[in-house]
Amino acid sequence: MHIGFIGLGHMGGPMAANLLKAGHQLSVFDLSAAAVEALVGAGATACDSVAALATARPELVISMLPAAPHVKSLYLGDAGLLSLLQQPTHLLDCSTIDPHSAREVSAAARQAGHYMLDAPVSGGTAGATAGTLTFMVGGSAEEFEFARPVLAAMGKNIVHCGDSGNGQVAKVANNMLLGISMIGVAEAMALGTSLGIDAKVLAGIINTSSGRCWSSEVNNPYPDVLENVPASRGYTGGFGTDLMLKDLGLATEAARLAKQPVILGAAAQQLYQAFSLQGHGQLDFSAIIKLYTKQE
Amino acid sequence: MHIGFIGLGHMGGPMAANLLKAGHQLSVFDLSAAAVEALVGAGATACDSVAALATARPELVISMLPAAPHVKSLYLGDAGLLSLLQQPTHLLDCSTIDPHSAREVSAAARQAGHYMLDAPVSGGTAGATAGTLTFMVGGSAEEFEFARPVLAAMGKNIVHCGDSGNGQVAKVANNMLLGISMIGVAEAMALGTSLGIDAKVLAGIINTSSGRCWSSEVNNPYPDVLENVPASRGYTGGFGTDLMLKDLGLATEAARLAKQPVILGAAAQQLYQAFSLQGHGQLDFSAIIKLYTKQE
Amino acid sequence: MHIGFIGLGHMGGPMAANLLKAGHQLSVFDLSAAAVEALVGAGATACDSVAALATARPELVISMLPAAPHVKSLYLGDAGLLSLLQQPTHLLDCSTIDPHSAREVSAAARQAGHYMLDAPVSGGTAGATAGTLTFMVGGSAEEFEFARPVLAAMGKNIVHCGDSGNGQVAKVANNMLLGISMIGVAEAMALGTSLGIDAKVLAGIINTSSGRCWSSEVNNPYPDVLENVPASRGYTGGFGTDLMLKDLGLATEAARLAKQPVILGAAAQQLYQAFSLQGHGQLDFSAIIKLYTKQE
Amino acid sequence: MHIGFIGLGHMGGPMAANLLKAGHQLSVFDLSAAAVEALVGAGATACDSVAALATARPELVISMLPAAPHVKSLYLGDAGLLSLLQQPTHLLDCSTIDPHSAREVSAAARQAGHYMLDAPVSGGTAGATAGTLTFMVGGSAEEFEFARPVLAAMGKNIVHCGDSGNGQVAKVANNMLLGISMIGVAEAMALGTSLGIDAKVLAGIINTSSGRCWSSEVNNPYPDVLENVPASRGYTGGFGTDLMLKDLGLATEAARLAKQPVILGAAAQQLYQAFSLQGHGQLDFSAIIKLYTKQE
């Protein structure tokens, strides 16, 4: 399939490369010439503007951008993609943005005669490179079926979440819970060890009991409970605190617009913010346990 | 083995019955004559006082009582079990109490020449009846090995958590995390559904993603996401909100004494308290989701 | 002075009326014909569009609108006030909006050759009618001095808070603190009375001690501690919970953009949101004490 | 009046000295010989035990001790003051303890034929020395009238709070509110200044507006907003974070026993605990603002 790909950063770059590997034809655009060059080296065709990409008439356009303003700017407005595309086109935005904005863009796309899916991912840069991302997809069943084989070249878990915006809803709800449960594990581990139990023994009990969760089993924040996790290498790698902060900001803002209380979700956001303020925003979010342990 | 059993309530009664089934000889005591009668009918010998039970010279005494004051009253003091027992005896307290009190009682027991384990359980009355409880055990390795076969008649997961009090530490740490993660799931489900996603779809995504936890997979608080859980039968059965409140009280009080912050743990305690205040203390703790959804 | 006034609602209407009483000449605009009629009856000149008002060439334009989107829509854009006004004009926005948006509009106004102040108010509709509002004003000293006499016709406490946006900053910071301290008073009164102390005795002690604050002294949330406050008349009148929610939303959103934690501020927002969800959004915000007392 | 005084520490010492200055006859006891010596130098008579003090037959016994266990140990038990005093005596405990314990001791005192008041203080060591303490007093009207003239020699604000324990109730409720509002002020000042407003300007607006409170007007946590406050001298002096923690522990524990939610009160406790964990427990509690500002 001829696919246009816009946004070739840490996530978009390896995602696009996997599409090339799967045999798709790619027209690519990014503000960074270096990012474009890398993909061209792998077989993509460079476009020097969004307009040029639209003119190439791809069947499907995929975007992977940092935040809602970039997405709105790309699709909407006078020189936006929606007005540039001359024929009905399938659009697939993989950016993580708020559900409200995702629905605004999708509605505008349909109004302009296009098809559109929101499809935020989880799995990080490792998953993007390995082609093992999870895609949470919002849009109609027909749109979803059209895009599914393409998504399968970039991920292994492709979930249809319902209508437009629901991909974003699934992601913010899941990540808000993740942000809360990580702090819960951090508090439980800090409390238990301060009361004298061995960290591995405690983690073992939690992991076979009603406290078990991804944050205890897969990314335990206590150092050296698990191997090959951020906590056992100084909290490097992983999912940065500032990225968790971005997602919690999306969740609490979506909650505000929906008039929906999220008491622990908002508390978690503020605790990560307090932690980031002290200069730890680049550490894996499991480093939040440092708030609960005496620092030298 | 000749075992003394003190405290034959909703938990202690079926636990004692399982010991009888396993072939042990039981001397039992409870303030409720009816509770004693039930066990006598199953083969136990009734004692009409703690002193009488002590005089029967059991090799092991098991206690299952509501709270720390009952445990202290049973073991310590002038007419307490520690002074009544005339020979070194193995003692096993299965009550859920604060680690500080557990350690105080254990230390007194050792001082008096006895052996003592703290061994709080999880699994509820269903697990007590089925003999599938989890025991979290604090005490020496020798004490643990002595008691292990007896515990195996009442439970299927017998974990040595380290020295005295660590059984209680494991339980309060795990249950604090449970209390937090249940609220986290409640908020995520309430947020997601208020933003338009189907509850089962959202739960399915969470359960295969980084938000997954016991509270989403096994006891999801959203009605009709899972069958045979409290949320799908009006929040009856299960683990009552007021029992969760008791455990969160133990956790935050232990944290206070250890000068250990537990920010979300304390928030969770207060939210369950606010929910209980409105008359919902007997509902399964997953009913906390009602705080987040419009009530008629 | 010839003043243009846009937005004649519950606040803007009486504010404009006070300007007429002070002898100013008013050109007014509102989407509601009835609101315009009321002011015309008091001596104002009606404009049937923003463009018509701009054509009337007022020396000063005052706007009083519900939220940031309305303010941006009025001032910015192709048919916005900034492009309609043909000569340098003093602009004064009394709407309560986020500081970021206020600064964006002010910067655009200056770029277009105008002068602009942000001047949100406190004091409610009673203060608007009585001409006793507090104005928190952001902008240059010269702009402030120009507008001060006009503001003095509508309020009695006119404070220069520094550069553009600082009026909004002062308001969101003050109101966030107000939202927190009201809940603090509610918790202290609920705790004290549940422990047996008389509510008036407790309020008396707090008001002469280190807990004293506006929420205890002037708007105590416990019924019948003070006369003539919402708590003593079923929480009617006063400052609605949903208005407090709006201001806390502005505060936490401004905090998020500034990467500034506001832990209790965010908690307060969520608690008012939970209270509003149960149908109490129209009650004075002191009604939050109902979260802490058993409801029939 | 012949008064027995037990507990001559940082608070009790200067309080006893003020009683001597007012012409009362004092029999004193403390575990610290140096503390006793200091009072003897000022005219008191030393007792080498509580029993000796009881034998001296004072009309009134005042105690000022660190915590509930000390108070219970002094009054209750086999060798406690209640059994040592041979004639009905007025008892006045100025220690800050939980209301539950205060009521337990008062009930025991009455049962033994004595009169008893709980009378915790506020005002710190400066107030103790200057004789300007506030006393919050629980007990009967007759008991209160008997003690009032004596209290007047040590304080200037003597408030009868109702029956036994209500002095403690008033203190924990007020101090919980104080702990919350200080964090509220810290967040408001940190938010405002991070958004660009001058700290003194913001404090000025808050202090004439609905956010005003003791923590903003008298002990503002932002450096150099006020002179002669801890914030303007490195947070030395004042009311230590660990003392605030003690009072918040009393408040949340009393709330737990009363099944009363205190959501922000518990959050405040945890935040001070997190701050203390990082080594700041000796700083004035207004130093909590450091949680909200970037530390070098």
UniProtKB/TrEMBL annotation, chains A, B, C, D:
Residues 3-162 form the 6-phosphogluconate dehydrogenase NADP-binding domain. The active site is at residue 171. GO terms for molecular function: 3-hydroxyisobutyrate dehydrogenase activity; NAD binding; NADP binding. It is an enzyme of class 1 (oxidoreductase). The keyword Transcription does not apply. Residues 165-292 form the 3-hydroxyisobutyrate dehydrogenase-like NAD-binding domain. The keyword NAD applies. Pfam families: NAD_binding_11 (PF14833), NAD_binding_2 (PF03446). Pathway: Amino-acid degradation; L-valine degradation. Its EC number is 1.1.1.31. Keywords: Branched-chain amino acid catabolism, NAD, Oxidoreductase. GO terms for biological process: L-valine catabolic process. It catalyses: 3-hydroxy-2-methylpropanoate + NAD(+) = 2-methyl-3-oxopropanoate + NADH + H(+). PANTHER family: 3-HYDROXYISOBUTYRATE DEHYDROGENASE, MITOCHONDRIAL, 3-HYDROXYISOBUTYRATE DEHYDROGENASE-RELATED. Belongs to the HIBADH-related family. NCBIfam families: HIBADH. This is 3-hydroxyisobutyrate dehydrogenase. It comes from Thiopseudomonas denitrificans.
